[in-house]
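Repro case for the chain-ordering regression, as requested:
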Amino acid sequence: MNKNILLILLIFALIVISLLAKYVLISENLYYNTFAEQLTYEQIEKLISEGKKWEWLGYTLIPVLIGLKITLAAVCLSTGLYFFTNRFNFKDLFRVAIVAEFIFLVPALLKIFWLAFFRTDYSFLDIQLFYPLSALSLFDEAAVQQNQSWLVYPLQTFNLFEVAYWLLLAKGVSEVIKKDFTESFELVMASYGTGLVLWIVTIMFITVTYGV
Amino acid sequence: MNRKIMLGVLLLGVGGAIALMLWQTLHRVEKKAQIKAAMQQLPDVQLLALDSVAFDLAKSVGDQAEVLFFFHPDCEHCQSEAKQVRENAQVLSTTKLIWISTENLDRLREFDEKFSLTQSIEKLVVAKIEPITANEKFGLRTFPTVFIYDAAGNLTKKYTGETKIEAILKHLPKR
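-- result from build under test --
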């Protein structure tokens, strides 16, 4: 399938999941339960109406953010490929990154399902922190956020779906460069892995420097 | 050969950036932990009152519960908080309230006059704090931030963002 069609499908799926999450998980009651201790009824009402006013911005940002993520992944892989084989093949690796990205639709759907049917007494913080099959799930998420907020993102990122993503990238790369899976996985680890470590450390730095 | 040099430079650059950010992160985490520990007890800091007289925060409060509001005159939520405080002057009249900002005294006087804070509540003080002190003693990032200390100077509760008066009163001794 053409990479542009794949990208459009991916963006469409992400927007649908966002709409589903909003419809299933977010309600006015959730706002009142979360903020009632600190804010007055009128302040919460204002928060809800402001949220509705700017909701469209969130959906507009989805294609921008996913496009950026896939581009960065493809840049890392292409850079690794160049040093590994003296070839630069951004276009094919961009397609590989798009295909692999589909795996992250699974935890997004799992999250909605889990919170809607099992952990039904969730708060906004739970929606923000919960990530299925992640290292963060092994700890008290709220306690980590409260005491070591800079660890939330790395612990969320370290999850089984990320491992599956790496395997999918390696499979895609092996088809592009016509090498075996093991060599391709090494290339993914070295290139995308380095980029991921840099990204995680950057987010940790920003969290600690500018976080409350 | 060129590729190897390029790879070496790239790895050095990326490795260096990771190492630097990681070191800075761990350093700031340690600093934040120290600030958090220090603010559990009402810090001994110098403030400047609206009459330009310096005073010591811990000494001025004495043996009573106090509420510190950290604000910025231009912050809408701080202005809304000031209105709430003024409207609940009666209920808050027995509590020491200290409105603190890093802005200059003229701006604080304007803010006080606009919202009639010191006029409405006798025990309310508006004062300036040095930015470096605000950061090192309270780790301030957001306005408004509300700190509630009990009579012994122990931190009872910290609220980040606008806070309704009922939430503050919940943590003060019953009259």
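Ordering looks correct now. The longest helix of chain B spans residues 2-38.
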